[in-house]
Each structure stands twice: as structure tokens, then as C-alpha cells.
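Q: What would this chain look like folded?
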Amino acid sequence: MTFQHTFWLYAAAIAAAFVVGVYIWAARRRRRDLADFASANGYYMAGTGTMWSLFTEGAAAYGLTGEEIPLDESVMNSCLGSGAVIVASMLPGDFTQSGHFIVIYGLGDGGYRVHDPNSAGRSAQTWTYERLSGQIANLWSLSA
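A: My prediction, written as C-alpha cells:
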């Protein structure tokens, strides 16, 4: 399997960006298109992974506003309430053993609604702030 093949199939951040793209733009973009964009523009580094600037500078290239936000429940709720989605870089825990990205897209009964590109089961659950917060490395709010 080539590096490029491995990259576009398994890069969780690219999958998260894909989900955000579909959710916000209501457009159909292939993971490979976003992976190619990330690679060509320095948002993916071999041996390092996805650069966090993908969710700010990279988002701007697609007409989105991406802003790093603090790990704060009221800030997260405000972002979601305004129609934004949140990309979360995850630490080891429920979602990963090493590092991963998920999209937090809403509030539901019992907590946050997430899209985990690697798990339909985890995506079907709601997650409390208390359960998520200790697993989050960083957050970005993205909006159109």
C-alpha cells in the first residue's frame, strides 16, 4: 500500500473535515479531494499527521470560518447553538489509543452528538461534557 493510499484512507482528520464539509456546505466532496488538498497545502506531514491549521487556514480556503476555541462547556454550547460544528482532536480514551478527530455537531438527550469517522456505534451515542472533556486535546469551531 502506498503512502498516498494509506493517507487518504485512514487520516481521521481528513474524514472529520469531510464530515464538516458535507454538514456545512451540503456538498458532496470525496475524502480523497480533501486529502489531496491537505497534502498539497502543507496541512498533512508524513510521520506527524494532520496539522491543526487545517481547521483554521485550511477551512478559510473553502470559505469556512475556523476558530480555535477553549475547552469550555458554555463556549461549546454557544458555538453549536449558533449553527457551527466543532472538530475535536482526541487524546487516548473512548475514541482512540493514540490520537483521532471527531466532529461534535449538536446537543441531544444526555449530551453531545458526535460523528466519529471510525465508529457508527460511538456516533450513535450521546456524550456528556464530563466524559468528553478529559479526552479532548483541542477544539475548533467551524461555520459557513
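The first strand starts at residue 44 and ends at 45.
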